[in-house]
Design a protein that fits this description.
Elements (H helix, E strand, L loop, with lengths): L1 H39 L6 H17 L4 H20 L13 E4 L4 H12 L4 E4 L7 H5 L4 E4 L3 H9 L9 E4 L5 H10 L4 E6 L12 E8 L1 H13 L3 E4 L2 H29 L3 H7 L2 H14 L3 H8 L3 H22 L3 H15 L1 H19 L3
Parallel strand pairs: 1-2, 1-3, 3-4, 4-5, 6-7
Antiparallel strand pairs: 5-6
Helix pairs in contact: 1-3, 2-3, 6-7, 9-11, 9-13, 11-15
């Protein structure tokens, strides 16, 4: 038995080595693709190409008796690495004549990410930090674009402190709230104004498939090239008004972060043994717990700023608290039928998305289970 297993495992090892060789060759080809895309200003992420390629590989896998989901999982992981590799080849400069870009707060994580992408795209970048304000006029006097990338609670203060900028300079902010910073920029600068919200963390390896929300402030024709540059980096851009953005972020960020904070606070106050929770957890609970833990591994000031950025957020959280109490009363009274009726009502509200999310989450759960030691 041992000899038989050893022989088979040796063959598997040889196949694995062959796979490594093929993966290395694929990455070499991806590097060549990256050079071509960089030369012609093509985006690193093309949804139609990816969808077509995956559909073909799934069909071919099925013909070979290989589970289609397996090849898709493998290829998606390989493509994620490929998108990161393509970053290293740089990007086409869409506005070659742009004067220096100044990133205020460029030493922060998001500021450093934008600095890296801009430099890879051939632009001259300067950094302005808190200690540099005595030289602010000198650093900003010939700026072609100024990007404000500071904590939310400092954003408007920094904008209001800006010295006069060149009339054609593009003033941009990256805050996760948009209406107040946008109004502050419009008041501080009479030239082009753009509000951006990168919907991802600064630790992302690539902007491929990431979303960047943009809110028009003034003179969109002056910064249209920058939106196209962001698309060349691989991101998808989504336009929305600043007011609508903040209304949606109340649900996407403020309410979700508060609920996560409250759950983490409850676990800590209950002094739950995390190692036991993990040992007993299903993949979905492990994933949920990981998302809670992720929050508490980051800057608390950021989340305090997001949650407390608006009185509307507080009102929304209070309504959530009220509905939590209403749901709790169903449990207190043992009213299973009312619970089921409420469940069905929410199921109806989700509609087809419920089944879609169930399917989408399967891959996440498999990955959570794969990472279990």
């Amino acid at each position: 038995m041992v000899a038989e297993l050893t022989a088979l495992r040796d063959q598997i090892d040889e196949v694995d080595k062959a796979l490594l060789g093929l993966l290395a060759r694929r990455l070499e080809l991806v590097a060549e693709v990256g050079e071509v895309k960089s030369r012609y200003g093509l985006p690193i992420y093309v949804p139609e190409r990816e969808a077509s390629m995956l559909a073909s590989r799934r069909h071919e896998a099925e013909m070979l008796g290989v589970p289609p989901d397996l090849i898709e999982d493998v290829l998606r992981r390989v493509m994620r690495e490929s998108y990161s590799s393509e970053n290293d080849k740089g990007f086409k400069t869409l506005m070659p004549g742009l004067r220096p870009v100044v990133i205020i707060g460029g030493a922060g994580q998001m500021g450093r990410l934008f600095e890296k992408l801009l430099v890879l795209s051939g632009y001259q970048v300067r950094i302005l930090e808190q200690g540099d304000w005595p030289q602010a006029e000198t650093l900003l006097h010939d700026a072609g674009m100024v990007i404000v990338s500071v904590p939310i609670h400092l954003t408007e203060q920094v904008i209001n402190q800006l010295p006069p900028l060149p009339q054609d300079c593009i003033l941009v902010d990256l805050a996760s709230v948009k209406n107040s910073p946008l109004q502050a920029m419009l008041a501080a600068h009479s030239g082009p104004v753009l509000g951006l919200h990168p919907m991802f963390g600064p630790d992302t390896g690539s902007l491929a498939k990431q979303v960047v929300v943009w809110c028009d402030g003034r003179q969109p024709e002056a910064y249209q090239w920058f939106l196209e540059q962001i698309q060349v980096w691989g991101a998808r851009i989504h336009r929305i008004s600043a007011v609508e953005h903040d209304q949606n972020m109340a649900f996407i960020q403020a309410l979700r972060h508060f609920a996560t904070f409250a759950y983490g606070l409850h676990l800590a106050e209950e002094n739950v043994q995390l190692d036991q929770l993990l040992a007993l957890s299903s993949p979905i609970y492990r994933l949920e717990l990981a998302m809670v833990g992720r929050l508490f591994a980051q800057d608390p000031q950021l989340y305090a700023d997001i949650i407390m950025s608006s009185g509307n957020n507080l009102a929304l959280i209070k309504r959530y608290y009220q509905r939590f109490g209403e749901a709790l009363s169903l449990i207190e009274h043992g009213n299973k039928q009312a619970f089921i009726d409420s469940f069905r009502r929410v199921e109806h509200w989700f509609g087809d998305y419920a089944k879609h999310f169930q399917e989408e989450s399967r891959n996440l759960l498999r990955q959570a289970n794969d990472s279990r030691q």
